[in-house]
Amino acid sequence: MPDPENTPILILDEDAVRRAMLRITHEILERNPNPSELVLLGVPARGDELARRIASNLLSIEGIRLDSGTIDIAMHRDDLPLRRLPPIVRVSRVPVPVNGRAVLIVDDVFHTGRTARAAIEAVIALGRPASIQLAVLVDRGHRELPIRPDYVGKNLPTAHTERVMVRLRETDAQPDSVRLAKPA
């Protein structure tokens, strides 16, 4: 029998995820006077899908067609020497050169800031962008680095021991959701 104390708590359902991504898109439009100059890069495995959703929202709201891409951070992580197994390296797919452009990095959950730092480093390795912005579906706090997302779908204060679980239809074959799991 499942323990109700350990059942993940639903934070965002499918409609709430859709609304959060739409709100993020509107905030991006407000802060970027020329959104057609944006380069959207998602961090695998869910950030790249969220970047595609932002691109789709930009098309439906403003008629702006942007290709989103993927930025691999595996070789830019600061924990490489600490890992027992080598990282899984994926191919970065960047639709246009980043030089002189505003780059928007998209990820699902912001936690310590280390993934964002690695993504920033990976972008800079590709060229010299005019600016780098960060959009996340969930900001759970617990910064270890002085990095803060520019766009946040949901601020979710958590304990260090809790887990935030994001599920997306395209990557997980489940309805979109964000759940908070307490430790067993």
User: Helix/strand-derived class?
Assistant: alpha/beta
What form results from the Cα inertia axes?
globular
Helix proportion range: 25-40%
What does the main sheet amount to?
5 strands, parallel
Mean pLDDT across the residues is 92
> β content, as a range?
15-25%
Distance N to C terminus: 14 Å
Number of helices: 4
Explain the overall architecture.
It contains four helices and eight strands, in the order E-H-E-H-E-E-H-E-E-E-H-E. With 184 residues, it is α/β, with parallel strands linked by helices. A five-stranded parallel β-sheet has the order 3-2-4-5-6, with helices on both faces. The protein has a three-stranded antiparallel β-sheet with strand order 1-8-7. Helix 2 links the parallel strand 2 and strand 3. The two termini are 14 Å apart. The model has no long low-confidence stretch (mean pLDDT 92).
